[in-house]
Specification:
Helices cover 55% and strands 5% of the residues. By secondary structure, the protein is mostly helical. Strand 1 and strand 2 form a beta hairpin. The longest helix is centred in the last third of the chain and has 27 residues.
Length: 168
């Protein structure tokens, strides 16, 4: 569970390299937020009245990776490991008995699969249709950066409440 290294994204590169570098930096930032914590701390909903936990954020971001890159962009029909049929669509946040090692392994797998999908795309102009709209890979990458950046802000607050650790 200790993924504490981050690689700064390039400061002057082409668009694909820049977007994928910034997204990877955000992924690595999330990994820093959960590094060194035990299962109980990872499940802790530390900022009342919110029900968010660091483990819930990891599971949610695995879902976001799977959904946008595999299902929306690649047209797969990949099912959530945490949301059985008929369950609340945000079951990824239900972590009372969740296994952190399983969650981190799935998140890492989804990130790796997302990187493969992006690398295989001919260009950032590659697009798919989703809910009647055309969506480019460029948009998906920008959206994913936004998603991680927002949730990394949540993770900052959670981590500070759990053990006082602050940082980027």
């Amino acid at each position: 569970m200790n993924d504490q290294r981050r690689i700064e994204p390039p400061r002057a590169a082409d668009e694909r390299t820049t977007l994928t570098g910034v997204l990877q930096f955000q992924r690595e930032t999330l990994a820093m937020k959960y590094a060194g914590l035990n299962a109980e701390q990872l499940r802790e909903r530390a900022v009342a009245p919110s029900g968010l936990s660091l483990l819930g954020l990891v599971r949610h971001l695995a879902e976001v990776e799977r959904s946008w890159f595999r299902n929306v962009f690649s047209g797969e029909n990949s099912k959530s490991p945490w949301t059985p049929p008929g369950a609340d669509e945000f079951a990824d946040f239900d972590v009372d008995t969740a296994d952190p090692d399983e969650a981190f392994a799935i998140w890492r797998q989804e990130c790796a699969r997302s990187r493969e999908i992006v690398a295989a795309a001919e260009s950032l102009d590659a697009a798919c249709e989703y809910r009647g709209e055309v969506i480019s890979l460029r948009y998906i990458l920008a959206h994913m950066i936004e998603e991680y950046a927002r949730h990394n802000g949540h993770a900052d607050l959670l981590r500070e409440r759990i053990d006082g650790t602050t940082g980027e």
